Amino acid sequence: MEQEYTITAFSENSIGLLNRVTIIFTRRQVNIESLTVSQSSIPGISKFTIVVKVTQEKVEKVTKQIEKLVEVLKAFYHTNDEIIQQEIALYKVPTEKLMSSNEIENLVRKSGARILEVTPDYTVIEKTGYKAETQELFQKLDAYGVTQFTRSGTVAVTKNPKELLTEYLKELE
Amino acid sequence: MEQKETQKPASIKVTGSQSVIKSLIEEGVEIMFGYPGGQIMPIYDALYDFTDKINHVLVRHEQGAAHAAQGYARATGKVGVAMATSGPGATNLITGIADAMLDSTPLVCITGQVGAMLLGTDAFQETDVIGISMPVTKWNVQVTKAEDIAPAIAKAFYIARTGRPGPVLVDITKNAQFAECDFQYKKCEGIRSYIPVPKVDVNKIDQAAKIINEAKKPYILFGQGVILGSAEKEFRAFVEKSGIPAAWTLLGNSSLPTSHPLNVGMLGMHGNYGPNIKCNECDVLIAIGMRFDDRVTGDVKRFAKQAKVIHIEIDPAEIDKNVKTEVAVLGDVKESLPLLTERIKTNNHEAWIGEFKKCMDIEYNQVIKKDIHPEKEGMTMGEVIRRITDKTKGDAILVTDVGQHQMIATRYFKFNKTRSCITSGGLGTMGFGLPASIGAKMGAPDREVILVVGDGGLQMTIQEMGTIFQTGAAVKIVLLNNNFLGMVRQWQQMFFEKRYSSVELINPDFITIAKGYSIEGQKVTSRTNIDNAIDTMLNHNGPYLLEVVVEKEGNVFPMVPAGCSVSEIRLE
What we know:
The complex is a heterodimer. By secondary structure, chain A is α+β, with helices and mostly antiparallel strands.
């Protein structure tokens, strides 16, 4: 059965590695739902967070292929209940809509979003949460005309009390 | 007290190009295969001063360089080295690199690249070879500074030869070739993010041993891992103590002598009858250094479902990739097999082996007899191969191209020694044979190297006859000519209602072509002359082309048609 999995991979920070990682998905006809790459808590090591909707068998094989890459230290995959995940969304609405009633303000308060910037022309709202939540806010705000909307990919930490990679690096030593 | 030598050897000033050549020498490279061009000229210039240390073989096409390096690597166990210029030079290497990737052959490919300032400008002969080669290399890197060259080459050799071997590519921009740097070579001994050989888990060995000791009909499938791990001795000890029948994959061929009583034959689409059907009758399947390719398993949903599978393998990504395992023993076979041999009972499985023998009798009567002792007029590929292997007493290295002749040659050639069957397995690259045979001969000059090739494949890289001419590589070329792309024709006959679409070849006079390169040869069209012709070829001091006209529409059997179960193997 297909479900959402989050793959986290730790790698050396080297040119072209992103390409090597994405090729693994392309070759197997797996669509990437979201992908973020950033520096991990360990200097010099990048962390990939990749969300895919596939079967358990597929995610297992793909994760092994990622780990096989020379520059990848370790790759893991998790189901949603094994991780805490969030994504950030930005919404731009015309400031006049914000001013004409208190409805947008109410939406912002209720959904735990916040206003980042207000100019005479536009207002930028930020919301962090699950994808479903950022999507819900988008639909509500769009009633007032969202002029720009963007969301980051998912970032995630595991419910495991320790960083899996730190344990692994210790093991290596 | 003597002072300890703690001082490092003083570094010397060199150009990036000299650094390339010096690094290759430090890695023990004696032979390399390549073709010069604009963006790699500085390296060729540096090579000019080291011709006493490195024998650079000038091929006729870069694809030939890659395949020759493969042939060299497969025959010797060393890393093969190929070199080419940027753009078309680099892209011409790709087929060979892809072949090496699928067949786990250690290669270091060095390509020239436009100057770093020109990268991304669509400069003359600029191509993104890093991007192009990414899916078909184990690792690749672009070097833009002279001082980075030696460490990159050190890393390249380390990655190519360790763990599951594979091809790597080092792309060097022209400015880096010209620039000066300090040279001080340090071999790569490890990379933090790369564990080439997983540790053997003794618990897994115990579990595997228990299953093997309780098995009634155990069956070993072995692949190239035995050869790549230099574990032929350890493997043989395991086979002999366990008394378990063992069948080989195409690339595992020759790691156990053909004549060994427990060697039951070949797996796969055109493998032997018993070895195929017994996959679905054994109770325990022990896969050693092989990857359950679809050509071995047939329909994987109907493959060995009844068996407990033990997979002994160096690459964790191969575990459960195609066939689910009961026990996976990760690690180097050279290390894991002796641990397993220690823990298993000395056994023999006479009745079970008897079943393989019965299958071999059936196959002999229905297939083999007709192949090697034909009663019809036209010559068969099988009878030619058998005569050659008998006359070379199983001591020759066999190199093949791809197609019908490949299957017939690997089925009927006999081997006493390991690393003696060099063939393109995973990629099935027509044109592999001729250049690979040159590399094999140069790697093993004291051994007889027999290339068996078809009329289609020969013409894909026929220009490498020029390399044979120039180097004198004494390859014995056996051309099995049926004036057809035989394997495709066989499929068209069997699965496309004999609609022979673009498979008939109007061929040139191959003997005359060879003569143009001063390669002696003769064409044989009838059985009465074949023995003499083979003797002449084998006694000839130097390269030789023996063209044998074989029956036009011979088919290779047994056959597991694509998509069928191994149990549905056809004998005719």
